[in-house]
Amino acid sequence: MENLEWQGNYVYLTVKAEDIETCSHSGSCDEDVAETLKLPYIKEEFARINPLDIVKELKEYGAWELDELLDEEQNRARLLWCACNDLSEENFLNATKVVYTSSESC
């Protein structure tokens, strides 16, 4: 299965395509993200990332207050969810590019 790299401003993650789908579906993804965080390769990804860099990355989204960003485990979940959604959207947009042509002249 294909691995995709998500590049933020402070961190990057490499995620398997199947896990991107698992963490970026409609509805609540909390349980799926929590389970994905337990995968050995995801643990390795986060082990090399400074937790303060995750805070800086998440802070740029503007979705969480600083006091909410004190929980390292929640921050890993937030970052994984954001990255998977970004990658999912990027793949969708790349897969659905359509070239429009018109048979009518202006």
Please compute the radius of gyration using only Cα atoms. 17 Å
Arithmetic mean of pLDDT? 87
- Class from helix and strand fractions: mainly alpha
Please bin the fraction of helical residues.
Answer: 40-55%
3D shape: globular
Please give the largest β-sheet: 2 strands, antiparallel
* Uncertain segments: 95-106
Helix segment tally = 5
Secondary-structure element series: EEHHHHH
Structure in a nutshell:
The protein is mostly helical. It has helices spanning 17-22, 30-36, 40-47, 51-61, 72-95; strands spanning 3-7, 12-16. Helix 4 (51-61) crosses helix 5.
What does this protein structure show overall?
- The protein has 106 residues and is mainly alpha-helical.
- The chain has one domain.
- Helix content is 53%, strand content 9%.
- The chain contains five helices and two strands.
- A two-stranded antiparallel ribbon has the order 1-2.
- A hairpin with a 4-residue loop joins strand 1 and strand 2.
- It starts with a strand and ends in an 11-residue tail after the last helix.
- The relative contact order is 0.18.
- Mean pLDDT is 87; it is low at 95-106.
